[in-house]
């Protein structure tokens, strides 16, 4: 057990917990959490009042609708095959292309809807730790829509992560081995007896459970044989074990021999003491800091093992530990782009972002939901920051804080990924109210404006209009007129909102000097926006 | 006014730092808005010095279908579906031929500007993408190094502290750039490579911005328990905050220059719309603008062909061919073709036998290209045996560090030993 922190705590510590175990919040969110005291606050995060169904997913994500859609597609292909029989090769090619294009367009549309849905869930949820863990699992069991191609499978996987967010790690590993999106991503789908595909067998050990150096090449070869025969039913998206494609011979994994299948191998993995250490260290790094001391890892791993790989008790130990609130841990984590975006919106008391913009920002900052770069997930910490992404963060902050009028479209980067995004996309497209369930609602905002035929051009237009109309935050609420008369108090109040720590003296003086310089006849919202953008355009703001 | 150099000296090296005073930083701050003039940068190598362009073929490029041993029965036997026939290749010898998705590179081979090194790898190969990439980028098979081979080149051979000594066209810094002093910069869209204020009285705001992003005192926090760093363009032992402050300063220093160069220099050579071609187009513009950059790094991904390899790999190699063709034409037009050498690499090759999904799994030993007028074209190294295998994989015949040594010494004109931390036998593809 890690040494525990006492129950009384500072407002800064409460902010730290909310930032790390969630995506931060407005000053009033932090005050509310602080009032609970440390232990109750941690428990409220671990046992949120709302269930994993807090927001309904878009209609096309339900299993019934998915099966229906899949069957419709199969029927369509059959029909196509019939029709093309009597066609010239050119005509047949064209007909095929048409069908493919329709499907691709729908997938693209769904992909964008799904991404927007998840982003809004993070922004609006009353169970922030659950969403933060969902993001953790997505990075840990990384799967990319680029290869999987079917948004519905990504959303089902997302649902799996959310339901098991603080649940059982071993159970989740079992599930992920038979998860359709993961199977397509790591080629388990095609792994057959005699010619096993090693992709999943390797990554499940290297990246998901044990880490490099805790298995042999032989273990991987043998495990790959055990993972043969799992197949995805294209009619309904379920997974079954095809015994005929399964290698039923004896395998030796971690020195044990038997006619193992995939489940057996996962169980063997979790018999390795390393599995608990690996995950405990990774969770510590995600929530607290890099390089946990070995003694702390041992202690957490012991908790984790005795809890039979339940994640919640381990997280509780972390969030209540003294070390989690140590000086070198607090305000010393580089925000990932998603954290940067969601936390910024929350701090600005915004419950939405300009339509389509958050998705483009994700691309520019290097973290697009459902699209990790590879099976190892994203590189974290310092890897998020380079000269390029840092300037982009500053410019994204400029656009969000100032609105389109003052930063006319400038923060919208125009490179290729952007052009792609513009073509099809709008993550926030359906976002014109507070709840991320827009996919379920018929009509409404942009979706209605676009109708069913969301051509790339149309979407681009709507995205741009939405961005052009972006007005920025409500500065009368963030910086009441009365407060603006006292520059020092104004700066301190904004600093608490954005940094949750006292400012370094030199920066505090600079912000105050800036406020003084800006003071014209009146201190308008425009000047406040300038000051806020400046505060967000600092190295310090990249930390939480 | 404190400068990047002062900052680095104060924070990282203490008073004992002795390297010469570069003019660059002072100049840039003084003329942030109005120059790309010939700055006194990189005194050792100079702005007319040689340039290396590294292209990463990410995901593990299958060498056997890049440079295919068509005359080897074992090849066709191991790959009934995937093996390339002689007629589908650009014949380079009686034994092997180049994938015919690369007609332009084939012509360069014939003209003597393309060298292909066969069977490149390292002892005790690692089949993890991440570990093996790291080994290539750090040039350290034990994989304990916190700095990259190019970062060590910047540290050792490029005096001054111009952050543009290395430019990576990607969203993240390559591990190869990890350095003790100067890890280079990273950019993707030059037009946006600046702080955008978007206001009428932007002058005041920009002054404050500039101040806030220029650390003026050594940052405390050396005691903060930090990651070893280095893997991501960070300096070893640097705290998160001082890392951020340094990057902020680098961004400021480099942004005015890059913006101006990118808008000034355009080429009439046609490039494709692929990300690789776009990146090489930008490299061409940076070279035309006279940046003192020694190394450009671009990545070309998608080579992890576990599934239906044939179409994917051919398409990716075709994109490489076409992008390089445009790039070299661009350089020729600006008269810079003799200053540039291109090197490709990939973290590993692939298994000799194909798998059931029409793809190939992770293997070892692959081929590597070097291209340019400074290269003596031809085939180098030995094609690994397809029958004498190690767990189904080719056994490497050339250590990749020998290629690095050749490029460092014969192209970048610097001793390779301190950079590679050892002596490696050079190859003869450079004079």
UniProtKB/TrEMBL annotation, chain A:
Region described as Disordered: spans on this chain: 84-109, 423-450
The organism's place on the tree of life at top rank: Bacteria
Xref: Pfam families: DUF1800 (PF08811)
InterPro entries: DUF1800 (IPR014917)
Name of the protein: DUF1800 domain-containing protein
Protein source organism: Luteolibacter ambystomatis
From TrEMBL, chain B:
Pfam families in the cross-refs: DUF1501 (PF07394)
TM segment ranges: none
InterPro entries cross-referenced by the UniProt entry: Alkaline_phosphatase_core_sf (IPR017850), DUF1501 (IPR010869), TAT_signal (IPR006311)
Annotated protein name in UniProt: DUF1501 domain-containing protein
């Amino acid at each position: 057990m890690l040494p525990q922190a006492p129950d009384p705590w500072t407002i800064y510590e409460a902010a730290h917990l909310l930032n790390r175990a969630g995506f931060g919040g407005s000053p009033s969110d932090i005050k509310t959490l602080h009032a609970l005291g440390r232990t109750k606050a941690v428990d409220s995060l671990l046992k949120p009042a709302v269930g994993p169904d807090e927001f309904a997913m878009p209609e096309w994500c339900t299993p019934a609708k998915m099966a229906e859609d899949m069957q419709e597609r199969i029927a369509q292909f059959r029909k196509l095959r019939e029709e093309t029989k009597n066609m010239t090769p050119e005509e047949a090619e064209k007909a095929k292309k048409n069908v493919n294009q329709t499907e691709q367009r729908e997938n693209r549309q769904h992909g964008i809807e799904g991404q927007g849905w998840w982003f809004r869930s993070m922004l609006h949820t009353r169970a922030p730790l659950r969403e933060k863990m969902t993001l953790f699992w997505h990075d840990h069991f990384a799967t990319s829509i680029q290869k999987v191609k079917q948004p519905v499978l990504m959303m089902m996987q997302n649902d799996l992560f959310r339901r098991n967010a603080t649940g059982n790690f071993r159970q989740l590993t079992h599930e992920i081995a038979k998860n359709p999106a993961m199977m397509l991503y790591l080629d388990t789908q095609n792994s057959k007896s005699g010619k096993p595909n090693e992709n999943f067998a390797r990554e499940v050990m290297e990246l998901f459970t044990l880490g490099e150096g805790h298995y042999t090449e032989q273990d991987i070869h043998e495990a790959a044989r055990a993972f043969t025969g799992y197949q995805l039913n294209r009619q309904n998206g379920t997974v079954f074990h095809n015994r005929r494609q399964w290698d039923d011979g004896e395998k030796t994994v971690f020195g044990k021999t038997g006619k193992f299948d995939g489940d057996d191998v996962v169980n063997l993995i979790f018999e390795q003491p390393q599995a608990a250490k690996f995950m405990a260290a990774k969770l510590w790094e995600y929530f607290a800091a890099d390089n946990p001391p070995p003694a702390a890892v041992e202690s957490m791993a012991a908790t984790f093992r005795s809890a039979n790989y339940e994640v919640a008790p381990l997280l509780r130990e972390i969030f209540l530990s003294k070390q989690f609130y140590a000086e070198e841990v607090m305000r010393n984590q580089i925000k990932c782009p998603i954290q940067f975006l969601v936390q910024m919106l929350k701090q600005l008391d915004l419950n939405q972002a300009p339509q389509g913009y958050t998705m483009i920002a994700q691309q520019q900052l290097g973290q697009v939901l459902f699209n990790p770069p590879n099976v190892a997930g994203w590189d974290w910490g310092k890897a998020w920051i380079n000269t390029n992404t840092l300037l982009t963060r500053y410019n994204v902050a400029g656009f969000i804080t100032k609105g389109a009028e003052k930063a006319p479209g400038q923060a919208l980067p125009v490179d290729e990924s952007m052009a792609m995004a513009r073509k099809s996309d709008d993550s926030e497209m359906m976002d014109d109210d507070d709840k991320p369930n827009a996919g379920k609602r018929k009509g409404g905002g942009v979706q209605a404006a676009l109708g069913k035929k969301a051509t790339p051009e149309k979407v681009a237009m709507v995205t741009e209009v939405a961005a052009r109309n972006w007005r920025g935050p409500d500065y009368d609420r963030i910086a009441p007129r009365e407060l603006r008369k006292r520059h020092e108090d104004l700066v301190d109040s904004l600093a608490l909102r954005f940094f949750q720590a006292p400012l370094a003296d030199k920066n505090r003086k600079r912000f105050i000097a800036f406020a003084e310089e800006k003071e014209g006849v009146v201190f308008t919202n425009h000047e406040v926006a300038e000051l806020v953008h400046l505060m967000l355009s600092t190295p310090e703001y990249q930390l939480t | 006014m404190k400068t990047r150099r002062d900052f680095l000296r104060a924070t990282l090296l203490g008073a004992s730092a002795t390297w010469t005073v570069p003019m660059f930083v002072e100049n840039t701050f003084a003329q942030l808005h109005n120059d790309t003039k010939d700055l006194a940068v990189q005194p050792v190598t100079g702005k007319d010095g040689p340039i290396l362009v590294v292209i990463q073929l990410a995901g593990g490029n299958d060498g056997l279908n890049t440079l295919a041993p068509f005359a080897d029965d074992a090849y066709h036997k191991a790959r009934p579906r995937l093996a390339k026939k002689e007629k589908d290749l650009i014949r380079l010898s009686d034994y092997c031929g180049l994938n015919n998705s690369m007609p332009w590179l084939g012509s360069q081979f014939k003209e003597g500007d393309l060298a292909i090194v066969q069977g490149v790898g390292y002892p005790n190969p690692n089949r993890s993408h991440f570990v093996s990439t790291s080994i290539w980028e750090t040039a350290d098979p034990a994989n304990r190094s916190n700095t990259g081979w190019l970062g060590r080149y910047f540290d050792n051979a490029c005096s001054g502290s111009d952050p543009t000594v290395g430019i990576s066209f990607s969203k993240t810094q390559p591990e190869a750039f990890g350095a003790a002093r100067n890890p280079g910069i990273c950019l993707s869209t030059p037009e946006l490579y600046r702080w955008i204020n978007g206001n009428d009285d932007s002058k005041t705001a920009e002054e404050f911005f500039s101040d806030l992003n220029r650390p003026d005192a050594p940052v405390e926090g050396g005691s903060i328990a930090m990651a070893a760093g280095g893997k991501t363009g960070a300096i070893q032992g640097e705290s998160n905050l001082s890392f951020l402050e340094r990057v902020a300063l680098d961004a400021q220093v480099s942004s005015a220059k890059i913006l101006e160069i990118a808008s000034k220099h355009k080429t009439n050579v046609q490039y494709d719309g692929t990300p690789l071609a776009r990146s090489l187009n930008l490299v061409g513009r940076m070279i035309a603008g006279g940046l003192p950059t020694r190394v450009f790094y671009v990545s070309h991904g998608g080579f992890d062909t576990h599934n239906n390899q044939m179409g994917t790999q051919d398409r990716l190699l075709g994109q490489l061919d076409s992008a390089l063709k445009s790039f070299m034409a661009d350089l020729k037009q600006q008269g810079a073709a003799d200053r540039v050498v291109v090197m490709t690499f990939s973290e590993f090759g692939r298994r000799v036998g194909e798998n059931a999904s029409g793809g190939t799994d992770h293997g070892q030993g692959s081929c590597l290209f070097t291209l340019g007028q400074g290269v003596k074209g031809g085939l180098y190294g030995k094609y690994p045996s397809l029958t004498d295998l190690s767990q189904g994989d080719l056994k490497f015949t050339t250590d990749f560090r020998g290629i690095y040594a050749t490029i460092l010494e014969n192209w970048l004109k610097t001793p390779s030993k301190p950079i590679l931390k050892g002596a490696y036998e050079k190859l003869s593809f450079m004079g």
